[in-house]
Inverse folding.
């Protein structure tokens, strides 16, 4: 294997199929160098087994790069080494331009939270909605929210034209239709929205392709995980429907739905002592829906306890509906606003990322060396649950 130096470290090239593998990611384990991407990337035990397939020389060489923490795994099927070098060295502004599509219940709540929380990392908040009056309302309301004598502390809200949506660093997809009304007998509200929302995201993923969008395409609308896959495929197919890989890189798309499931598990863990290990040692994985996986702990994993806590988190939105309200506030804040801020800051957070052809939720962060997914020594019963969720996403 070769190595290429760049401003922030070294690039290690591989050539893997675009349909199943990211363009680049941070190299944190030698096992990532073998066999492409898959669910095993979340399990340090499995990555250790992959490492055995490397020669002693390769292990010695690349171990030093991993120890320094400045190694990037680049996929030459997505771009040349020189193109990757240019992309990784591109100067990045401290504060980012964030543009939101659609200002319904979710979009307006995300916007409000980003306005309040994003002063340190957001330059402007661009908004677009088919209802012009809605845009004017939120531009006035939120730009009239200010700290006294520190009038530039929070980001400014600006109204966009549709053709300006992708002139930004992060595009936030909040558009949605077909949300079942409160009282409707729908077992999984998120999946009921899939057919309606996939058509909308298809259109905007094509627009991202057409304008050569280089930023992050953040999916907030439900169900986030399959909608991310729709966006990936739509942006990477030509007019005849053939996959050509000329659109968004897989790592340019992230789904923001898992944050609230983690927060809901924490909510119940604070209420019942038997779940309290989750607050110190717990993790959330998988999709924002029925195949969610909550682990009470990694080192002291209890399968029965974890499954009970998982179900409480899954059903939490139904409890809000039982009260006669749509459960959109917690998702808009925990999954979207807080997680987007953490993404901008390069901090650990929960979101869904491309992994072996599907978008799988896990703890991750953005770094100067690419996306980094957390890998832990996962107990087999927990890994079996992740595998079931992964297969469900593959079949969708």
């Amino acid at each position: 294997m070769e190595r290429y130096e760049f401003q922030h470290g070294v690039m290690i090239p591989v050539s893997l199929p675009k349909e199943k593998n990211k363009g680049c990611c941070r190299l944190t384990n030698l096992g990532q160098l073998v066999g492409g991407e898959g669910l095993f990337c979340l399990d340090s035990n499995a990555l250790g087994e992959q490492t055995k397939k490397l020669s002693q020389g390769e292990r010695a060489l690349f171990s030093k790069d991993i120890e320094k923490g400045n190694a990037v795994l680049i996929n030459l099927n997505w771009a040349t080494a020189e193109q990757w070098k240019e992309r990784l060295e591109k100067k990045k502004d401290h504060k980012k331009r964030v543009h939101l599509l659609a200002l319904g219940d979710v979009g307006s709540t995300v916007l409000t939270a980003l306005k309040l929380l994003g002063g340190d990392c957001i330059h402007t908040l661009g908004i677009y909605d088919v209802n012009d009056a809605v845009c004017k309302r939120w531009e006035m309301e939120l730009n009239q929210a200010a700290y006294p004598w520190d009038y530039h502390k929070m980001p400014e809200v600006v109204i966009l034209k549709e053709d300006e949506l992708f002139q930004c660093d992060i595009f936030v997809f909040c558009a949605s239709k077909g949300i079942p009304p409160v009282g409707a007998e729908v077992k999984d509200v998120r999946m009921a929205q899939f057919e309606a929302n996939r058509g909308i995201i298809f259109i905007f993923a094509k627009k991202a392709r057409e304008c050569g969008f280089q930023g992050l395409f953040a999916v907030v609308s439900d169900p986030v995980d399959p909608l991310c896959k729709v966006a990936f495929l739509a942006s990477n197919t030509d007019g005849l429907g053939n996959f050509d890989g000329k659109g968004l890189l897989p790592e340019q798309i992230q789904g923001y739905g898992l944050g609230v499931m983690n927060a809901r598990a924490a909510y119940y863990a604070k209420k019942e002592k038997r779940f309290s290990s989750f607050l110190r040692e717990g993790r959330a994985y998988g999709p924002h829906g029925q195949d969610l996986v909550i682990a009470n702990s990694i080192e002291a994993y209890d399968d029965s306890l974890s499954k009970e806590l998982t179900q409480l988190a899954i059903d939490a939105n139904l409890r809000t509906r039982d009260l006669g309200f749509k459960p959109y506030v917690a998702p808009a804040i925990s999954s979207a606003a807080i997680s987007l801020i953490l993404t901008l800051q390069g901090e650990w957070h929960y979101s869904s990322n491309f992994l072996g052809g599907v978008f799988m939720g896990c703890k991750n962060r953005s770094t100067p060396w690419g996306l980094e997914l957390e890998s832990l020594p996962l107990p087999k019963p927990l890994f079996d649950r992740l595998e079931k969720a992964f297969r469900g996403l593959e079949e969708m």
Q: What stands out?
A: The chain has 13 helices and 15 strands. The chain has three domains: 4-89, 96-255, 258-395. Residues 303-322 form the longest helix (20 residues).
